[in-house]
Design a protein that fits this description.
GO molecular function, one term: endonuclease activity
Structural class: alpha+beta
Shape: elongated
Number of domains: 2
Number of helices: 12
Distance between the termini: 56 Å
Protein name: Endonuclease domain-containing protein
Number of strands: 11
Strand content: 15-25%
Strand order of the largest sheet: 8-9-10-11
Pfam family, one: DUF559
Keywords: Endonuclease, Hydrolase, Nuclease
């Protein structure tokens, strides 16, 4: 998925000449990203930009390409080895990078856990280490949940991630749960934990199917995304499930992914109101 860059020496070793390299760059067969760094034609722009800066793609920028949940991903994230320098603008290899720009790339100056050779991206463990440092605690847990759920890392590798992080982050390890099937589901689980709920994930009901969360043994919480719940047919099926659950004595709260991610205070207030309504005063 992540392309390998080539150096001039490697291209010459393949039988090319200085002139043929120049011709390939002019025709678009090769992309001259920065000094002594070339990428093949068709390489994704996000890798070109990261390599042009002088490092490798990492953190939220890379994880999003793998389908890992990230709450916000607005800037290019680039890993730079501490000994490296000569950083350039992601859009112009001849222009020096302005490190103070708020719209420029986020630079991660760390020693890598993994050494991916000539790859344009760091390894998945390094990307996760950077992502934990770059996000709020709840967003970081949701990202780690997602990586586990997708099978991109094992529980043993999760320990490696936390071993590489500053000690203040290690409390988050106990909160990670790879059973969560979406980032919004992870975020709601963390809210329910704050409320002291008894939490069960991915609970199956005979003849009805699985639900995202079951809180305190009676409140079903479903985290709906536009991707899977936009059609009227799906909405009808959702309501039929809710009716069937109600017949068994369960209440259902349906939340949109957008509301969970961008209006969390409202979601927390709704959860608190429902949960406390059943608890003894």
């Amino acid at each position: 998925m992540t392309p390998d860059y080539m150096t001039r020496a490697e291209i010459l070793a393949q039988g090319q000449t200085r002139r043929s390299i120049q011709a390939a760059v002019r025709s678009g067969g090769l992309i001259h990203v920065r000094r002594d760094r070339y990428l093949p034609e068709g390489s994704e722009d996000i890798f070109v930009r990261a390599l042009r800066v002088g490092g490798r793609l990492t953190c939220l920028s890379l994880l999003a390409l793998f389908g890992v949940f990230v709450l916000e991903n607005r800037r290019l994230h680039v890993h730079i080895n501490p000994r490296d320098g000569r950083l350039r603008s992601p859009s112009n290899r001849k222009e020096r990078l302005d490190p103070g720009s708020r719209s420029g790339p986020v630079i991660h100056w760390t020693q890598p856990l993994e050494h991916p050779g000539l790859s344009c991206a760091v390894g998945i463990l390094d990307a996760l280490v950077h992502a934990v440092c770059c996000q709020t605690p709840r967003a970081a847990v949701a990202t780690l949940d997602s990586a586990l759920h997708l099978g991109l890392i094992t529980h043993l590798q999760l320990r490696e991630v936390f071993a590489a992080l500053p000690a203040r982050f290690r409390v988050l390890e106990t909160l990670v749960d790879g059973r969560a099937e979406s980032g919004p589901e992870s975020l709601v689980r963390l809210m329910a934990r704050v409320l002291g709920c008894d939490i069960r994930l991915q609970v199956s009901f005979d003849g009805i199917g699985r639900v995202d969360l079951l809180l305190d043994g009676w409140l079903v919480v479903e985290c709906d995304s536009k991707e899977f719940h936009a059609s009227w047919q799906q909405q009808v099926r959702d309501r039929e499930r809710d009716l069937a659950l109600a017949a068994l004595g369960y209440s259902t709260l349906r939340l949109t992914a957008a509301k969970i991610m961008y209006r969390p205070d409202e979601v927390l207030a709704a959860l608190r109101g429902l949960v406390l309504s059943r608890r003894p005063v």
